[in-house]
Amino acid sequence: MKKFENVYQDAALMKKALLGEANESEQQELEKRLAECPDLQKVYEQLQNGETLRVAFGEYKNYSSKKAYESFLQKIGQTEPEVIKKPRTFRVWWSVAAAVVFLVIGLSFYMSNYGSIEEESRPLIQPGVQQAQLTLPDGSIIDVHKKEVNVIVDGVQVKYKEGVLSYEPTVTTQHEEKNVEEKPVKSNELIIPRGGENTVILADGTTVHLNAGSKLTYPVRFAGKRRVVALEGEAYFEVVQDESHPFVVQTHLGEVMVLGTAFNVNAYTNASVCYTTLVRGKVQFSAPNVGTVTLQPGEQAVVSANGTEKRTVDLDEYIGWVNGVYNFKNRSLGEIMETFVRWYDIQVYYET
What is the pLDDT of residues 9-43, one digit of tens each? Predict the structure, then answer.
């Protein structure tokens, strides 16, 4: 018996023959190889049997690749009687060769002759689709990405259309602003799941772009001396200027206060560090036991339990996500993997 010397050459010949693409010379070469190797002949006969392929690929689909591979090796061992005892190393090598042939050409032949394999039930990985869940002051929950929203809440018209949630004070609210400010302020909560993103225009006109796995809590309308919102996760803010009413973003590590500016805050609750990056304007970050850090455009405040660091950064690295672009320069592997988990809504396993 001639040794199975070239797995890929034999696989290519078998594939062409099974698909009817082999010329006369190639057909003769294959017949010669099959005559020399009875075990290869067995594999070839299995590939000609549609039911065998259905069973094999059914196992491949239902189990992990490792289990499917082990199952196939087991079948090869069961169907090959040992008339002459062979060295163990050769049996293992031969089984691997047969398995490689089967896997290399079986799929294309099966799909060409017996239909395509059913797609797995899990969805394709999609980054950053428009989706969000809005909790109203009365506790009702709306999946805003599934339908258009147009309701009046506390004298403010709340709309959702084409990926943007907006709050517009009504004429009545504007005329009765003094009386409205005396009423308790009602808050909304906007949750962006992993794999999602969304934009909200607050009642003062401030635009907030929320990244995946984030939550923003904010009043339906702003009242009082400060415009306060609370963030868990990451968001890019374009704040409408109002010097008499500073805009404040509260995070689990401190708060950012601005008058009118554009900046990014990355403050996921499962992270030990908060990043505040200023694009334009001027902001101050303050936290207990840390003090206050004032930022100029192009600067970033890095706040953790160990203290605060102010540094100059490349803005594209930290705000590119707003346009669907991630820049991982100087990022740790852990940070990159966490971004994948949030942005694609997948589980990631890695070792360093």
Answer: 777 787 778 777 888 888 888 888 888 888 778 87
Could you tell me the end-to-end alpha-carbon distance of the chain, in angstroms, rounded to an integer?
Answer: 47
Residue 149 phi, psi (nearest 5): -115, 135
Indicate the pairing of strand 262-267 with strand 254-258: unpaired
Is 16 domain-assigned?
yes
Cβ neighbours around 169 below 10 Å, total: 19
The answer to whether residue 330 is domain-embedded is yes
Query: Residue holding tokens 């099966």?
Result: 110
What pLDDT digit, counting tens, does each position of 265-305 carry? 999 998 889 999 999 999 999 988 778 899 999 999 999 88
As for how many domains the chain has, the answer is 2
Q: Give the predicted TM-score (pTM) of the model.
A: 0.60
**CA distances for 31 relative to 14, 24, 107, 201, 203, angstroms:** 10, 11, 22, 72, 78
CB 170 within 8 A of CB 152: yes
- Name which of 67, 94, 100 is nearest 80 in CA terms: 94
Question: From CA 154, how far away is CA 220, in angstroms rounded?
Answer: 7
Task: State the pairing for strand pair 262-267/273-280.
Answer: antiparallel
Could you give the CA distance from residue 32 to residue 53 in angstroms, rounded to a whole number?
A: 24
85 and 195 both lie in a single domain = no
Q: Which two tokens stand for residue 33?
A: 């190889």
Q: Is the dihedral of CA 160, 161, 165, 170 positive or negative?
A: negative
CATH number, domain with residue 301? 2.60.120.1440
DSSP code of residue 320 = G
Backbone angles phi, psi at 25, to 5 degrees: -65, -45
Tell me how far apart the alpha carbons of residues 342 and 194 are, in angstroms, rounded to a whole number: 5
Angle at 163 between CA 162 and CA 168, to 5 degrees: 85
Q: Which domain holds residue 322?
A: 129-344
Query: Which tokens is 165 given?
Result: 């949630």
- Listed in sequence order, the residues at least 6 apart from 25 whose beta carbon sits closer than 8 Å to its beta carbon are none
